[in-house]
What does this fold into?
Amino acid sequence: VATPAAVSCDAAGTVVSPPGWYVVRSGDNLWSIAERHYGAGHGWLYQAVARANRRGVRNPNWIMPCQRVYLPAYGRRS
It folds into this structure.
């Protein structure tokens, strides 16, 4: 029987379309996650990701592999 951590870690690093849940892989940080999901030059959106996860991410500089983080929708205004 697989443990819940092992089951959730199977999806670690899988790119999702925001809004949605992302499973942190080893070596990730919120900046790199924002760049990967919102596009190059959008790493600064790590702040929005941190705000959306303020209950589970107490320190944006410290996230753990297999941790789930919510990626909020981001739309450009013209």
Notes: Strands lie at 20-23, 68-71. The chain has three helices and two strands.
